[in-house]
Amino acid sequence: MSGSAAGKAFRNRTALAQHELHFGPNMTPMVDVVMVILIFFMASTAILGPEWFINAHLPEDEAVAAVPDERFTLPDIRLEVVLTADDAGGARVTGFGVTNGTMAELVEAARAAAPDLTAGSEPTVVIVPGPGVAYQDVVRAHDACTAAGFTRVGLD
Amino acid sequence: MNVTPMIDVVMCLIVFYLIVGHLVMEREGLARLPESMRGEEQDDYVEPIVIAIINAESVSVDGVETSIERLESVLSGKRAQQPGVTVRLRAGREMAYELVEPVVEACRGAGVTSLELATERSP
Known about the structure:
Number of helices of chain A: 5
Distance between the termini of chain B: 46 Å
Largest interface: A-B, 35 and 43 residues
Shape of chain B: elongated
Shape of chain A: elongated
Helix content of chain B: 40-55%
Radius of gyration of chain A: 34 Å
Oligomer: heterodimer
Strand order of the largest sheet of chain A: 4-3-2-5-6
Number of strands of chain A: 6
Strand order of the largest sheet of chain B: 1-6-5-2-3-4
Order of helices and strands of chain B: HEEEEHEHE
Radius of gyration of chain B: 18 Å
């Protein structure tokens, strides 16, 4: 008698018997879907992550700029960096003492000129792209000026 | 073999890709942004006005296509509703600046003094 009771306690259940014992909703599909959504959000965040933003001022044209009322107020310093397209699809730069130079020369010249020009004033550097200049080169020139220490860099 | 969970997952993926892709394309415009070494992350969560350049004649403002001629008035209207809102410009890196310039002029005409240029972080 005691032997039959022990036999019942340790009886192995088949997979079918275990399946039949299960009751309530099946959670597996829901877990699958939630995991997919989770991974998708993680992946899409990684894709969108590297985007960032640069600030470009939009200074008014000189002709329409407001004239200050004070008699001895000096107008804001306005420096121009002119970009022209070259035959190779790149851009040549004129500004900060560089004439028809490369972007690397602009970086050096802007860096050399920045300490004197930014001492006691906040000059506005305006990038003036010519016909055929790619937007990437405009952003590159903007980068060069902000890297040199100019805080107000604008587009014409 | 029970294929129900797999079908669930695949359907979910498809619907998700469709919805997200459509939303992103509508609002942001798809373009290879220019690379920059100096930029800032978006630190606040105030939704900017996003202008994406489509072609020489038309742009998209917050996902709604409009012509370059109407851009200034559209921007003025939006800025009147949300004073001080940031304006963000999305344009492709290979795009000639002649396509960008009318947008910049329209922004200036609408009283925008500062523009946020969307770029990709340079590797």
